[in-house]
Amino acid sequence: MAFPVGYELLREHFGATSWWPDAGFYFHDNPSVFASEFAQILKTRQSYRIFQIERRPDNVMHLLKKRYSFTICPVVRELRSIAREALTPLFPALRQFIDGIPVSSVDRRSISAMFDPSDGTCRVE
Q1: DSSP string for residues in 53-81
Q2: Which of 7, 23, 60, 100 is deepest in the core (most CB within 10 A)?
Q3: What's residue 10's pLDDT?
Q4: Cβ distance 106 to 59 under 8 Å?
Q5: Residue 4: its pLDDT value, please?
Q6: b/e per residue, 60-71, with b = 16+ CB within 10 A?
Q7: Are 70 and 26 in contact (CB under 8 A)?
Q8: Which of 98, 94, 88, 111 is nearest to 18 (CA)?
């Protein structure tokens, strides 16, 4: 297993945003609660979340320390470059979504990229 993107690539695409200094980075070993569920997803080549950006409101932020979070999940090592190539063009849309959330918003909002290992594509959800 390997992560499709790292901190350096994220900084390259999101580092100029006003909210970058208030972002946390979480590299998870799987996108589901149970490792067995993730193993089944991989075995059956189902789509799954490999990337998520979340904005938390002030009332949640004090517990989690950061207002914005990047969550990255792994892909099968052989698909790492394919996943990166499919994911990277989505960064402008992901950034635009987060930039469009009013600072005064009290809602917790997130946007994800789903990876389909059967055809090597990503889509925004």
Answers
A1: EEE--HHHHHHHS-SEEEEE--B-GGGHH
A2: 23
A3: 96
A4: yes
A5: 94
A6: eeeeeebbbbbb
A7: yes
A8: 98
Q: What is the pLDDT of residue 13?
A: 95
* Kind of pairing between the strands at 121-124 and 68-72: unpaired
pTM of the entire structure? 0.86
Give per-residue pLDDT as tens, 21-73. Answer: 989 999 999 888 888 999 999 999 999 999 999 887 766 555 556 778 899 99
pLDDT score recorded for residue 34: 87
The helix (H) or strand (E) run that includes residue 25 is strand 23-27
Q: How does the average pLDDT of the chain come out, rounded?
A: 89
CB 74 within 8 A of CB 13: no
Tokens encoding 110: 């997130």
The single-letter code of the amino acid at 116 is D
Spatial CB neighbours of 63, under 8 Å, sequence gap ≥ 6: none
- DSSP alpha helix (H) spans, the chain: 7-14, 35-44, 58-64, 80-87, 91-99
Which residue is associated with the tokens 């979480």? Answer: 26
